[in-house]
Design brief:
alpha+beta, two-stranded antiparallel ribbon, 5-stranded mixed beta sheet, elongated
């Protein structure tokens, strides 16, 4: 499959039965929420994706195994220059259509209950029979974005120099009060 044929909306149970796999790259611009966090041009930024759907022996749980990898240019919070933040996510996610199946999963297994909300909107990645694969992959990457991106080592551009701090030393207002107290006592 080429990047143009990446299926954004899939039917997990139907596609897992068919042994769906996809490997390729997509432009970062297809992931709007991540693109909003980026600084500068993202025209050449790509996201590498490897994913597959499989089904358990009872045909009740679909497993999404994926590796998503990219670099996102963000603003360094120290020097305010661009810093490329590598994002790599390997995940094994259970897609189930019945909450009673949760007890069959390992304690630490990540899962999504399909059709959990009857009031799904177009922006959500869940509907009773389909899943927005792009939104799901983007969610996994968003979890990796740092709150305060920064270079490993850089100089602070907006930190005042030590000599400026020394020069800004102002008169102590309590010294004025002490001198007034001295005048009152005499």
């Amino acid at each position: 499959m080429s990047a143009n044929t990446f299926p954004a909306q899939i039917e997990p149970f139907k596609w897992a039965e068919q042994g769906f796999t996809w490997s390729g790259t997509l432009p970062l611009s297809r992931f709007a929420r991540i693109a909003r966090e980026a600084v500068g041009s993202i025209d050449d930024q790509l996201i590498n994706i490897d994913c597959k759907l499989s089904m358990d022996a009872y045909h009740r749980i679909v497993w999404l195994d994926a590796r998503v990898e990219t670099k996102v240019p963000m603003e360094c919070q120290r020097c305010l220059e661009s810093v490329e933040i590598p994002l790599v996510s390997d995940f094994h996610l259970a897609l189930i259509d019945d909450e009673s199946l949760i007890e069959r999963l390992d304690e630490d297994a990540d899962f999504i209950v399909l059709g959990e909300s009857e009031s799904t909107t177009k922006g959500d990645y869940l509907t009773p029979s389909t899943i927005d694969l792009l939104a799901l992959l983007e969610d996994e990457l968003l979890l990796l974005l740092p709150l305060s991106p920064k270079h490993d080592a850089c100089e602070l551009k907006h930190q005042p120099a030590i000599q400026d701090i020394v020069e800004e030393k102002r008169d102590n207002p309590f010294e004025v009060l002490a001198s007034l107290k001295g005048k009152l006592n005499s």
